[in-house]
């Protein structure tokens, strides 16, 4: 976070030269105009990305729904074969994540539509495969083509908002993934009724129909995708001027950067990124467990396949409401660390319930609510908190890409510790999830302590220097202050 004198009083910081009155609008800005601008951004920026993420998560999580609709038997998914099909998707994320994030920053937001079209093709392919090996290949390619989407969308959301507005907007965006989990169970139950049509089993139609939806939405979104702020065309001239002035006063003014492999590797040396990866990995494992294994877990409680699909809906909706409420509260009080720990505590309660495995199915079902609420609050905080503390431009794109995609190591774990032989208790899976959640909490504590120490040292250094000399106030600048 930039210093109080720079942000709260809104002083324009210009590295290497004094502030100039020729730089356009200067803070303090008109409050009414700012409120109208934020409302317009909320209506124009978030909805399109929300819809795309909804479709994205439908495609990512539908393998869990397809499994209990006959895929396991038809493709002979014995032993850990299903887990491997889940695992290779995350391998695709890991391999292509950072390069895809850089490509998004280089080619612009419309690249998200291109990614989406190609992963839609791969989803359709999952519904047409004849054997397990082909399913694994399609899932790997789906992961590769999806790898840059969430990081790119997260970057685009942050590009339009100030640091103290980013988390709540990102959480609103990420509720699409949570709602998709709820919709997926209902949608899969409906699509399953097509079983036998054209000679295809119910599980095949889940992939085919949702893949066709993805391709259609991607083509339509090409024409309405928002550009980066400096190229925005949906704002009036005075609105765009105010937008760019707000971002500049917040230390987010637009700068032209050259990108290279050396630059990316240099950015990846930042300790904050890797601590952020650990924070994200600690809760991503549980989030992926919910999306991929919850239908199987609920079926083990005694529900039919359709009943299990339907009973996932309240779990996801509760997680969405919980994350939005506490993300707004986090921004209101200006604290991220304590709310990450709160999410971790709620998640840990849910995991502990599942590990203990009480006899009452209703109590075990309640545990799923705690898991969803906890991980869906902590996960976006782990991304946004590090992103706003890592500067901007390509550095922020690389940071978000690394956290999201290397953080999928948690998904690697979940896909291999939920053992078929332990159905429906999954003692190993939930125990490992609790261990990783504790690692995430330790990482958050390290991150908080490091940032607090960094602010103290910069305060001491600033006291020995003349007035503000900033401009492009990156995370290495004397006037940059970390958000806690």
UniProtKB/TrEMBL annotation:
The chain crosses the membrane at residues 84-104, 116-133, 140-161, 167-191, 203-225, 313-330, 337-357, 363-388, 400-420, 426-448. Its main location: membrane. One of its GO terms (cellular component) is membrane. This is MFS general substrate transporter. The keyword Aminoacyl-tRNA synthetase does not apply. Residues 45-452 form the Major facilitator superfamily (MFS) profile domain. It comes from the Eukaryota. The keyword Protease does not apply. It is a multi-pass membrane protein. It is found in: Membrane. Keywords: Membrane, Transmembrane, Transmembrane helix, Transport. GO terms for molecular function: transmembrane transporter activity.
């Amino acid at each position: 976070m930039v210093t109080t004198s720079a942000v709260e009083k809104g002083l324009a910081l210009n590295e290497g030269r004094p502030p100039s009155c020729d730089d356009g609008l200067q803070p303090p800005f008109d409050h009414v105009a700012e409120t109208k601008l934020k409302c317009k951004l909320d209506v124009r920026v978030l909805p399109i990305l929300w819809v795309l993420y909804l479709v994205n998560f439908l495609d990512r999580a539908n393998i869990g729904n397809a499994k209990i609709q006959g895929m396991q038997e038809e493709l002979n998914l014995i032993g850990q074969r299903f887990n491997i099909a889940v695992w290779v998707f995350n391998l695709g994320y890991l391999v292509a994540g950072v390069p895809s994030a850089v490509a998004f920053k280089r080619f612009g937001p419309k690249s998200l539509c291109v990614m989406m079209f190609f992963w839609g093709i791969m989803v359709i392919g999952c519904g047409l495969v004849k054997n397990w090996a082909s399913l694994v290949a399609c899932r790997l390619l789906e992961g590769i083509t999806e790898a840059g989407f969430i990081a790119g969308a997260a970057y685009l959301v942050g590009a339009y908002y100030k640091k103290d507005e980013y988390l709540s907007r990102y959480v609103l965006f990420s509720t699409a993934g949570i709602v998709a989990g709820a919709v997926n169970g209902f949608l899969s139950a409906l699509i399953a009724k097509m079983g036998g049509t054209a000679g295809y089993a119910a599980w095949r139609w889940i992939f085919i129909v949702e893949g066709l939806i993805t391709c259609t939405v991607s083509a339509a979104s090409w024409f309405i995708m928002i550009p980066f702020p400096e190229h925005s065309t949906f704002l009036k001239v005075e609105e765009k001027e105010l937008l760019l002035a707000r971002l500049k006063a917040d230390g987010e003014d637009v700068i032209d950067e050259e990108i290279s492999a050396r630059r990316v590797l240099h950015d990846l040396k930042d300790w904050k990124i890797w601590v952020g990866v650990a924070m994200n990995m600690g809760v991503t494992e549980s989030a992926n467990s919910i999306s991929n294994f919850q239908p199987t877990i609920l079926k083990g409680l005694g529900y039919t396949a359709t009943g299990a699909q339907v009973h996932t809906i309240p779990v996801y909706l509760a997680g969405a409401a919980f994350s939005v409420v506490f993300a707004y509260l986090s921004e209101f009080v200006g604290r991220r660390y304590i709310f990450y720990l709160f999410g971790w505590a709620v998640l840990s309660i849910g995991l502990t319930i599942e590990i203990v495995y009480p006899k009452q199915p209703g109590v075990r079902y309640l545990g799923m609510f705690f898991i969803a609420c906890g991980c869906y609050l902590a996960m976006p905080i782990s991304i946004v908190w590090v992103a706003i503390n890592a500067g901007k431009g390509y550095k922020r794109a690389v940071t978000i890409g690394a956290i999201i995609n290397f953080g999928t190591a948690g998904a690697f774990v979940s896909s291999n510790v939920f053992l078929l032989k332990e159905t429906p208790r999954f003692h190993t899976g939930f125990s490992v999830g609790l261990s990783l959640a504790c690692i995430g909490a330790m990482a958050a504590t390290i991150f908080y302590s490091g940032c607090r120490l960094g602010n103290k040292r910069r305060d001491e250094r600033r006291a020995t220097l003349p007035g503000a000399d900033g401009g492009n106030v990156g995370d290495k600048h004397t006037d940059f202050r970390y958000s806690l």
